[in-house]
Amino acid sequence: MIRKLLSAAGAGLLVAAALTAGVPAASAAPPAGASAAPLVVRGAGDPSIQICPPPGPGQVACAARQAIDAVGRAAGGAAAPPAGALTPAQLRSAYNLKGTASGGRTVAIVDAYGYPNLERDLAAYRKQFGLPPCTTASGCLTIVNENGGKALPRFDLGWAQEQALDVDAVSAACPDCRIVVLQASTTEITSVGTAVQTAAKMHGVVAISNSYGGADASDDAYGKYYNVPGIAVTASAGDSGYQGGSYPATSSYVTAVGGTSLTPAPGTKRGWAESVWAGTGSGCSAFNDPLGAADEYGTGCDNRAMNDVSAASDPAHGGLAVHYPTSAASASWGQFGGTSEASPIIASVYALAGHTGSKGKDTYANSIPYEHSEALFDVQSGSNGTCTPALWCTAGPGWDGPTGLGTPNGTRGF
Question: Where is the Peptidase S53 domain (predicted)?
Fold first, then answer.
């Protein structure tokens, strides 16, 4: 196959030239202590904070964002979730997940660095919304390092907030799912990739969520970490708008997850309205093979096209209520989004559907939605930038770059 380097793909990349032809560049030092000061982007009238600093060469950054008000204050407070933040009941209503259960299937979450009070903060979230407890003592919650050991890495505030969003999102979408959190030692793609491989070998894991990304890269270099047939591996598309590609979402082995704005729509049949979130990543990989399952959808990309499916990501419109750390010791309530919200939601829906293991060891879960696209909510409005062809950055009927085939309408599409 002739792999085309697209000039448009360079616009908006997370880190320019972070990887050259998919080969790791010299390693950069991971951020020290806590994450660098967050960046504020006031796009489309929806201010939000970028939780993690941009990645260095060969690294990834988390794709979480926190909603803030007009003067830069974080939405929320210590006492209660922010008014307007998405609750578990609302999330399950929006995606027609009421009455579904996983039967105790396990969703694995891969992130970087440590979060000593993860179990405490998760307990507060689940208690607030009347969800059953999920503890390490009961076996519902497991927290390990990238190799599956108990020696956990150092604390990092930004990545700890990312983990809070991830475990709360899984809890909201799939209250009876077991949760495994794997904390990589660094943000090197080799480190988080090792955690993915560890997760794939753990008993009961049916889905692995990766709420992070870096520059577009080659499966020839990194695909060995994400090549896990028989298990749903989801990856966030990134929060930089139309950008051309973000790895591992551009891997041919994963389900690439884009983002939407989700708002109540009383009086409509669904009760919710959904459009493209302007921040979601999308684009055409310069390196990786296209999905055979997507051939009939006309993506316009000779290589791997982002995205396959999507879910709520707009911090202001569909941002999830999260009980998150404000320091190594303290916690509060906030409203979080970014495609980091969408990836664990989709991983949870795969777990609820329960088809990944039954499809066999030779089946990649990213093919399943293409076989059942009629069972998804087709998002048909909104854009995340300017591009050619337009469907890479503008929603319309059927497949489009920002939202893929659409968002969950129950579990049949997964």
Answer: 85-414
Which 8-state DSSP code applies to residue 270?
A: S
pLDDT of residue 74: 77
- The Cα 242–Cα 240 span in angstroms is 7
- What is the C-alpha to C-alpha distance for residues 374 and 378, in angstroms, rounded to an integer? 8
Determine what percent of the chain is predicted with pLDDT higher than 90: 83
Q: Considering its fold, how many domains does the chain have in total?
A: 1
Q: With beta carbons less than 8 A apart as the criterion, state whether 403 and 318 touch.
A: no
Instruction: Say how many CA atoms lie within 13 Å of 31 toward its Cβ.
Output: 24
CA nearest to 305, candidates 356, 349, 252: 252
- Identify the bridge partners of residue 29 per DSSP, sorted by sequence position: none
Q: Which position has the higher pLDDT, 96 or 44? A: 96
**Has residue 35 been placed in a domain?**
no
Task: Enumerate residues 6+ apart whose C-beta is below 8 A from 1.
Answer: 289, 302, 303
Alpha carbon distance 53, 317 (integer Å): 23
375 belongs to a structural domain? yes
How far apart are alpha carbons 65 and 345 in whole angstroms?
A: 16
Residue 269 belongs to some domain of the structure: yes
Smallest Cα–Cα separation from 210: which of 173, 230, 184? 184
Q: How far apart are CA 358 and CA 79, in angstroms?
A: 43
Is residue 391 within 8 Å of residue 332, measured between CB atoms?
A: no
What's the domain range around 190? 45-408
